[in-house]
Amino acid sequence: MNWDQIEGKWKQASGKVKEKWGKLTDDDLQMIRGKRDQLIGKVQERYGIAKDDAERQVDEFSRTYVGDETTTYEKTTAKTHGAGR
Residue 34 in 3-state DSSP? Predict the structure, then answer.
């Protein structure tokens, strides 16, 4: 999933962001509004890490977030298609 899609689904994604980076406040999440650079900056600030590390974490989150959606879809599809057999 590219970042534009995460930005478009920010309300859903922000819950996962909060789980991963618990030091981010609700105000932080509202201010970020799905903007990748804003998230990187806040992660860097709250956790006292280098920008490169924050970027790596955000990119990893982006890949993981995609995996979660795919896994959920695959599980739902498997249950739907397997139920009638």
Answer: coil
